[in-house]
Amino acid sequence: MTLLKFQITLFFLLIFNLSVFSQNFTNSNLPIVVITTEFDTVSGNYQNIPDEPKIWADMKIIFRPDGSRNYLTDIDSVEFLSYDGKIGIELRGSTSQTLIKKPYALFTLNSDGTKNNVEILGMAKENNWILHSFAYDSTYLRDPLINFISSEMGNWASDYKYCELVVNNNYKGLYAFAEKIKIDKKRVNIKKLSEFDNELPDLSGGYIIKADKTTGGDPIAWTMETYSDSIEEINYIHHRPKPVNITDEQHEYIKNYFTAFQEAMDNNNTSILGGYPSMIDIPSFIDFIICNELSSNVDAYVLSTFFFKDRNSKLCAGPIWDFNLSFGNDFKRWNNDRSKVDVWQFDFGATGSEFWLDLFNDEEFNCYLTKRWKELRFDGEILSYDNIETKIDSISELIAESLIREEQRWGSVGIHQTHVDSLKTWLV
C-alpha cells in the first residue's frame, strides 16, 4: 500500500470511529475531557497509556464557563476550552489499576516538556493532577463528599470537578478531575524546604508525611508501633520533600519529632511546655478523627494518612485523602466488612500508630473532641444529617445524566441510586 493510500484509509477509519462514537456521546452538562495519545502509523493504533513512565499526549477540556452544555463539536473552539495543550499521562493507583476502568495521573506540560502550571476548571494553578475513576465506589461521591465536609470544617481538601472522559475517541465514562496534595499557597500552605535548610529554625519545616503502603515505589522512611496483634508497624513515607530530595538532617528531624510526640503520649505528658499539646495542632487532629470516624474510613490512620508541619509550627493531621472505602463501603465481595457505624476505626483492630488511641484515651483531648463533634452536629450545621443529605442530593443531581452513559459503558445499569440510598441509610 502506498503512503497516500494508507493516509486516505487512515483518515476514513478515524472519521468512521469518531462518527460511531459521536452517535453515543456528543454533549454533556459536565466538562468534557478529551485525551489523544500519539498515533503509531506502523501498528495503526494509538499508544496505550502505561503504568509508567508517563507518555506524551494532547488534552483538551471543553467547558463553557457560563454553565451551559458542553459539546464535542466545540473541541476546536478556543473560547470553550479550559485547557488545550500537552500532558504527560500514566495509570495511577495500585489495586484500582487492575479494574477495567482505569484511573490516571497527569502533568500539564509546555511544548518543550517542562511542567506548565495552569488553572483547570476553576482550580488554582498547578501542573500535577489526577483523573479519579471512582474505583470501588458505586455512588461516585464518597471522596467529593468527605472533601467537601472537611473544607466546610475549615481545612484544605483536594477539590473535585466531575467530567466525562474520552481517550483516543473511546468514551471512558464519568471521572473527576482532582488536585493532588502539594505545598502551595492555595493548597497545603507551608514553607518549602531546600537542600540547604539543615539547621534550625529553617530545618523545622515544611514537611508533608504520610502513613501508607509502599506500592508507589517510595521507600519507607521509618515505622511506628501499633497496639494491634495483626499489624505490628505502620510505614511512614516522605511526601514533601520527596524521598530523593530530603536531606539526612531533614529526615532525622521529622522522624525524631514523631518519636518525641509518641514518647509524650507514652508518658502521659499533657504539659503545654514540652508535652503533646506543645507538639501537635490539636484542632487538626480532632477534625481528622471526626472525618474518618463519621465516614468509618477503613484505611484510616494506616493508609493515605497525611500529616504536615510548617516552619516553627506544630504537627498537623491532614489533609484527608482517599475515602472510597468509607460510609459503609468495603471489599464485601471478599468478605471484608470493616466500615461500620458501631466501631471506632482507630480502635477497631487498633491498626493505626499508638498515638491515635492514646489521644482518644486522653481526658482533655477527648473533651475537645466531644465538644467539636456536638457543635458540628447541631441542626443546620456542617455534620447535621440534613446538611449532608442535601450535599449528596446535589451531587447526585449533577451527575445523574452522565451516570446513564457511565452505566451503559461499563455494564452497571441501575445500581447507582440503590447504593446512594444505602449510604443515606447508613448515615442515619
Summarize the structure.
By secondary structure, this protein is α+β, with helices and mostly antiparallel strands. It has eight helices and 18 strands.
Q: What are the defining features of this structure?
A:
8 helices; 18 strands; 428 residues; seven-stranded mixed barrel; disordered N terminus; globular; alpha+beta
What does this protein structure show overall?
The protein is of the alpha+beta class and 428 residues long. 30% of the residues lie in helices and 22% in strands. The chain has 2 domains: 25-180 and 386-428, no CATH class; 202-377, no CATH class. Strands 2-5-7-8-11-13-12 form a 7-stranded mixed β-barrel. Strand 17 and strand 18 (315-317) form a beta hairpin.
Rg on CA atoms, Å: 23 Å
State the separation between the terminal residues, measured CA to CA.
67 Å
**In total, how many domains does the architecture comprise?**
2
Q: Please give the largest β-sheet.
A: 7 strands, mixed, barrel
Task: Give the amount of beta strand, in percent.
Answer: 15-25%
Q: Which stretches are low in confidence, meaning pLDDT under 50 for 5 or more residues running?
A: 1-23
In round numbers, the mean pLDDT is 91
Q: Estimate percent helicity.
A: 25-40%
Walk me through the topology:
Elements: H1 3-24, E1 27-28, E2 32-37, E3 39-40, E4 45-46, E5 55-62, E6 70-71, E7 81-91, E8 104-109, E9 118-120, E10 123-126, E11 128-132, H2 142-152, E12 160-167, E13 170-179, E14 207-211, E15 222-225, E16 233-240, H3 248-266, H4 282-295, E17 305-309, E18 315-317, H5 354-361, H6 363-377, H7 385-410, H8 416-427
Parallel strand pairs: 2-12
Antiparallel strand pairs: 1-6, 2-5, 3-4, 5-7, 7-8, 8-11, 9-10, 11-13, 12-13, 14-16, 14-17, 15-16, 17-18
Helix pairs in contact: 3-5, 4-6, 7-8
